[in-house]
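ARCHIVE CARD
CATEGORY: sequence design from structure
SOURCE FIELD: tokenized fold
FIELD CONTENT:
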């Protein structure tokens, strides 16, 4: 039976009955902070949510759900790439990892400021030919995999919660990254299920678009501020 203590995985040795620690994982406190930040980030609608809403409104709930699975599969690809990159950086030097963390803080702040300064756009559903669920899934994967902003976000987000002093920083990053992906999948699926009603709520209302933009920008700036505190 697994138990956790100070962020380490523990199991019982069947011979001695003593606890044996297999490796470092994020502490419950860190996971809670990441989960809270992830919930706030994914609930505020962004380009991926708008894509999912478009599919859901245009072709129904199944299409919306499949696009949500595709989008978050693309996010998982970026998590794996970010973990591989961070592992190489951490292996090179602690200073390089610190530089990446501060660069991440700056990037998160830049996203927040640019979001606040972006002009509002109303949500609309273009008329498209119905696609198969397989094609919708692949399009969802490509929407995220080919988006460099998603790659930059994960590279900026994950280091803020990883303790470079622990021996298994890669495992920490994987757990944290897939926590974000899992919460994103749940949130996006809810958007897909309620696509019709939510799409109508967003469509053609500049005030709601402005509120969404301001909330999104504030979330990124808050996250940048929290990250700056931990990066010291």
């Amino acid at each position: 039976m697994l138990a956790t203590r100070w962020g380490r995985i523990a199991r019982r040795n069947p011979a001695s009955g003593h606890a044996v620690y297999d490796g470092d994982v994020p502490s419950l406190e860190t996971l809670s902070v990441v989960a809270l930040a992830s919930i706030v980030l994914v609930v505020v609608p962004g380009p991926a949510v708008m894509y999912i809403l478009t599919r859901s409104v245009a072709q129904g709930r199944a299409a919306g759900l499949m696009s949500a699975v595709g989008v978050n599969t693309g996010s998982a690809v970026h998590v794996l790439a970010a973990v591989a990159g961070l592992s190489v950086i951490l292996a090179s030097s602690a200073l390089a990892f610190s530089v990446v963390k501060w660069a991440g803080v700056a990037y998160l702040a830049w996203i927040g400021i640019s979001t606040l300064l972006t002009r509002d756009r109303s949500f609309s559903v273009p008329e498209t030919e119905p696609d198969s669920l397989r094609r919708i899934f692949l399009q969802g994967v490509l929407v995220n995999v080919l988006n460099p902003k998603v790659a930059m976000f994960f590279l900026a987000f994950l280091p803020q919660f990883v303790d470079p002093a622990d021996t298994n920083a890669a495992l920490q990053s994987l757990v944290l990254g897939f926590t974000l992906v899992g919460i994103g999948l749940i949130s996006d699926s809810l958007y897909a299920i309620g696509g019709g009603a939510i799409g109508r709520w967003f469509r053609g209302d500049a005030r709601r678009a402005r509120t969404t933009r301001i909330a999104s920008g504030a979330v990124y700036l808050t996250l940048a501020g929290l990250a700056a505190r931990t990066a010291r």
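CARD ANNOTATION: Residues 43 and 187 are 6 Å apart (CA to CA). Residues 61-92 form the longest helix (32 residues).
SHELF: design records, drawer C
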